[in-house]
Structure formats: C-alpha cells, structure tokens
Write a structure and sequence with these properties.
Blueprint (H helix, E strand, L loop, with lengths): L2 H11 L6 H13 L6 E4 L8 H8 L8 E5 L8 H6 L16 H4 L4 E5 L6 H13 L1 E3 L6 E3 L3 E6 L3 H6 L5 H7 L2 E4 L7 H19 L5 E2 L1 H9 L5 H15 L4 E2 L1 H5 L27 H27 L37 H15 L4 H8 L3 H10 L4
Parallel strand pairs: 1-6, 1-7, 2-3, 3-6, 8-9
Antiparallel strand pairs: 4-5
Helix pairs in contact: 2-3, 6-8, 9-10, 9-11, 14-15, 15-16
C-alpha cells in the first residue's frame, strides 16, 4: 500500500508512530481487508491489537455490516458458549427465553474475538465448526444454523506453546492464522516512544486544563531505555499519573524513576540474560516473580551443597599462612557435627500460583472479580484456577 494510505489509516484510528514494524502491520491489514480470509493478530498485552480488526472491517466489503468485539477472557467458562452462539429457552437454569449469540448478531459482518487463547476446549470445537462450514448450534438446540461472518482473532498467548500443552487446538490455530499479523512491542519502536509520550501528555493537559508535562534530556534517555513490559498502555498510564501528581511541568529522570515500577526488576542478577537456551523474555510481572523465586531456590540449594561438602571434608578450608596465628578449623569447633539437609524444598510454580491466588482472595474478602484485577488475570481464568487448586 502507498504511504498515503497508511497515513490516512493512522489519522482515522488515532494510531501514533512511524516505526517500520507498525507500518508493516497496518499495510498487511489493508491488504487482507478486501478478502474473506480469517486473520490472527498477535502481540504482547498493551500494544494496541484492538485497532487492527477495525481497520480490516472498515476497509472490507462488510463495512456496512455489524462489527462486534468480544473479550473471550472476560466471559466465565460456564456461559461463554451461550454468549457466543446463543441458547434455547430452558436449556439451563436462568435461560428464561431464547437468546441470540454474538455470532448471530454479527451475521454478514465481522466478529473480533479478543484473547482467543483463553477459550475453553469445548468452545474451541464450536468455533472450528464455524470456520470450517459456517455452521453452529445454539446451546440446548439440535438445529444447525448457517452463518456468514468474518472472524478476526487476537491473542497475547503463545498459541504454539499452548498447543504443545494441550490447551489449544492445533487445527483451530491453523484455521485462525490463515493470515497472521504481528504487532511489535513498544521496546522495538523506540522512535515512537517520545511521540506517544507527547501525545498522551497533551491529551491529559487538555482534559484537565493544565500545561503539558515535559522531560529533560536525562529523563528522555530513561524513557527510551526502559523496556515497557506493559507497552503503549503502560506508557499512557505512567504519563497520566505524572501529569496529575507532579506540580512541576519539567520532569527529571529521578522523578520519572518513581513511576517505573519494573525498572529495578529488570536489573536483578536473577533476570540477567545468560545466553543460550536460558535467555528468556518476560511478558508480565508474574513471570518475573516466578523466575526470581526459582533462581533463589537454585542459589539456596547450591549454597547448602557447598556447606555440606565443606563439613564432610570434600572441600578443604583455607590453610593459614606460615608464621601467622593458628586458628581452629571450623569443623573441629563443631561438636557434634550436624548433617546438613541437601534435599531441596518443593517450591513449584503451582505452589506459588496457589499462594498468590489465596492471598488475593483474602485481601479482597473473597470477591473474585477484585482478586482477578489484582492478579492481572481474567475472571474466568481465576474461576478455573480456584477450581483446579480446590480453593472454593
């Protein structure tokens, strides 16, 4: 597509940035829009995936039809089939009348399935049937209905890994990803970071009728060097908080650091890239926490083994220098010798996750919606974890 077309799309949908990766994603969306191909949009949380289904719909032959966006991760597992495909009266408790689902409402239009990686396996089978034959069956019905709808899906989950873990259907993945579009994270768009900051600062200043904040040179360098794990969404939130809280409109690096909670976490020794297969990319704060705990566990186990080897004589202690004052060997000072436990405590990912969920529920008095927000997971995922860990 011509650069003029891409610029028009950016202006229409309020997309800020000039990075090649961003322009490439917009170009792909414009190319696939006139077709009927299913599209899978991938990218980390907060990169702005929600704009691209709208670009595709508005530049397609279906632009006069319905456009419906559904957050699959926000719908409880027990009701998601009914929400998507509808239900018949009396099909379950509370089904007091027939109800159309989102797919039926989107007939002749486009449906956007956000967080498609959160769909339970039975719902994935229903979605696969829609993609393969354009057919679906309402909950509680035996009647097959035809549908003419274009599906655009998005996820920040690694679906290839989810397939390997038997959490996502491989055949559905290939059906959805007929035309994949990857949205680059903000750390790969450093030239866009300052543009976005100025845009958000200007918007906030206009909204609250105050002068816009600015950054000094050192703060600009800090802004560019930060990895932004929450991407554009995190940058917007940080900019708005600084605009409201700080009295001075010129922000220094020291002041900016106060609003970057992940800055110190990135510099922990446990999280340093170690090369080879051990190099990891963290997509959220929970993954960072788990990695820190696992590395701490490994370090403690190595320390225990070292102490055990010293006490058993496998490793000799330093010998005093000639003519220096003699000293007693530490082992000789211990009576009796205590055997050191070398068996590692069991600290599994499940144990950590279970404890985090338990504490979140306690903090919020058992209110699952609030606990889900605190844990930064969907309410449906929290319900599943509560059941899995028997935390009812």
């Amino acid at each position: 597509m011509a650069a003029k077309d891409i610029q028009q799309v950016k202006q229409r949908f309020g997309i800020i940035g000039n990075a090649d990766g961003l322009h490439r994603a917009i170009d792909l969306a414009l190319q696939v829009a006139p077709t009927e191909m299913s599209v899978l949009i991938t990218g980390e949380s907060g990169v702005g995936k929600e704009f691209f289904p709208q670009i595709i719909h508005q530049n397609s032959m279906r632009k006069h039809g319905q456009y419906i966006a559904v957050n699959c991760g926000a719908i409880p597992e027990g009701t998601i089939d009914s929400e998507l495909f509808g239900h018949e009266k009396g099909s379950f408790t509370g089904a007091l009348a027939d109800r159309k689902g989102y797919f039926e409402f989107a007939d002749s239009g486009t449906i956007f399935l956000d967080e498609v990686g959160e769909l339970p396996m039975p719902t994935q089978a229903r979605l696969l049937r829609v993609l393969e034959s354009g057919e679906f069956i309402k909950v509680g019905s035996s009647k097959v209905q035809k549908i003419n709808v274009r599906i655009v899906a998005a996820t920040n989950v690694d679906l290839v890994q989810a397939i390997a873990q038997h959490k996502f259907r491989e055949d559905l993945y290939y059906r959805l990803s007929t035309f994949p579009i990857q949205i680059p994270p903000l750390r790969e768009r450093p030239e866009d970071t300052l543009l976005l900051f100025r845009k958000f600062a200007g918007d906030c200043a206009e909204k609250y009728r105050m002068p816009p904040i600015q950054l000094d040179d050192e703060a600009k360098q800090l802004l560019l060097s930060y990895r932004w794990p929450g991407n554009v969404r995190e940058l917007k939130n940080v900019t708005e908080r600084i605009s409201v809280v700080e009295n001075e409109r010129m922000i220094t690096a020291a002041e900016l650091r106060l609003y970057l909670p992940n800055l110190n976490m990135e510099k922990l020794p446990a999280l340093m890239n170690r090369g080879g297969d051990e190099q990891k990319i963290f997509h959220n704060e929970r993954e960072i926490l788990y990695q820190v705990l696992f590395d701490m566990k490994k370090d403690v186990a190595e320390l225990k083994k070292l102490v055990h080897d010293i006490m058993c004589g496998n490793i000799s202690m330093p010998v005093p220098v000639e003519n220096s004052e003699p000293y007693a060997h530490p082992i000789h000072d211990m009576s009796p010798i205590q055997e050191v436990e070398t068996v590692e405590e069991s600290l599994s990912l499940e144990d950590v996750e279970k404890e985090m969920i338990h504490k979140a529920l306690e903090r919020h008095g058992g209110r699952r919606r609030n606990a889900a927000v605190d844990l930064k997971i969907s309410e449906r995922t929290l319900y599943r974890k509560i059941k899995e860990y028997n935390l009812e």
